[in-house]
Amino acid sequence: MNICVVALGKIGLPLAVQFASKGHRVIGADVNEKVVELVNAGVEPFPGEHDLDVKLKQAVDAGLLSATTDTASAVAESEAVVVVVPLFVDAEGTPDFGWMDSATKAIAQGLKPGTLVSYETTLPVGTTRTRWAPMLAEGSGLTAGEDFHLVFSPERVLTGRVFADLRRYPKLVGGVDEASTARGVEFYEQVLDFDERPDLPQANGVWDLGTAEASELAKLAETTYRDVNIGLANQFARFADQNGIDVKKVIEACNSQPYSHIHQPGIAVGGHCIPIYPRMYLWNDPAATVVRSAREANAAMPEYAVDLLAAAYGDLTGVGVLVLGAAYRGGVKETAFSGVFPTVEALRARGAVPFVSDPMYTAEELAAHGLPPHAGEKVTAAILQADHAEYRTLTPADLPDVTVLVDGRRTTDPEAWKGVRRVVIGG
Question: Which of 70, 252, 276, 346 has a 20 to 30 A CA-CA distance from 28?
Answer without folding.
Answer: 276
